[in-house]
Amino acid sequence: MHAYQRDFLDLALRRDALRFGEFTLKSGRISPYFFNAGRFDSGADLAALGSAYAASVLASDIGFDMLFGPAYKGIPLAAATAVTLATKYDRNVPVAYNRKEAKAHGEGGMLIGAPLAGRVLIVDDVITAGTAIRESLALIHAHGATPCGVLIALDREERGQSTLSAAQEVSAEFSIPVLAIARLTELLTLTQNNPTLALHHARLAEYRQQYGV
Ligand SMILES: O=P(O)(O)OC[C@H]1O[C@H](OP(=O)(O)OP(=O)(O)O)[C@H](O)[C@@H]1O
Ligand SMILES: O=C(O)c1cc(=O)[nH]c(=O)[nH]1
């Protein structure tokens, strides 16, 4: 495990953004753990996340013109990443978000922020079965823009529509990279090696047997 992955998982555990128990997921799967990016709820937390996301994408060879943060939790993550890119790396990129329900008054519509154009990098919190990312990809295509990659904090490494993981499927089907700061693999390593988390390890491993790749 890399130091930046441990730092991210440690922060998530300290903030209770990573919890163990029984959680129903968007896919209907019942999971023994849950990543709630909404717990990164201070300026300092968002700055730390923005730095981790920005560093990950800049260390990759993904070329991008703008960021897109899917509602809801992708919104502050894309914003934090855009702020870091501008303030730390002198790279001012446009940023856009969507609404879950269309707005019928004022400016109206589903999209907020910069028009979707050029190479769009999706910034979200987590990928499970890939539904949210596929919706974002469809939205970007529908606006005539080009998705160029997906940047997430946690890849749960779960099966999508085939025997591949959702991240692998999206990557192969759309010919784009899916970059994650950490994966279930690192979480399993952490829970195995940390005495206070060891009791969760078996349930995570069992869940991986059921839904993982
Ligand atoms: O890969 P998937 O199976 O689609 O699951 C992952 C998605 O589920 C959550 O979104 P959700 O819309 O539930 O919640 P949010 O409004 O809190 O972002 C999460 O933020 C991911 O976007
Ligand atoms: O699959 C989901 O719905 C999901 C999983 C997870 O760990 N965190 C989250 O916000 N959603």
From TrEMBL:
CC cofactor: Mg(2+)
Name under which the protein is recorded: Orotate phosphoribosyltransferase
Domain Phosphoribosyltransferase positions: 52-158
Keyword flag Transferase: yes
Keywords linked to the UniProt accession: Glycosyltransferase, Magnesium, Pyrimidine biosynthesis, Transferase
Entry's EC annotation: 2.4.2.10
Pathway: Pyrimidine metabolism; UMP biosynthesis via de novo pathway; UMP from orotate: step 1/2
InterPro entries to which the protein is assigned, alphabetical: OPRT, Or_phspho_trans_dom, PRTase-like, PRTase_dom
Function, in words: Catalyzes the transfer of a ribosyl phosphate group from 5-phosphoribose 1-diphosphate to orotate, leading to the formation of orotidine monophosphate (OMP).
Encoding gene (name): pyrE
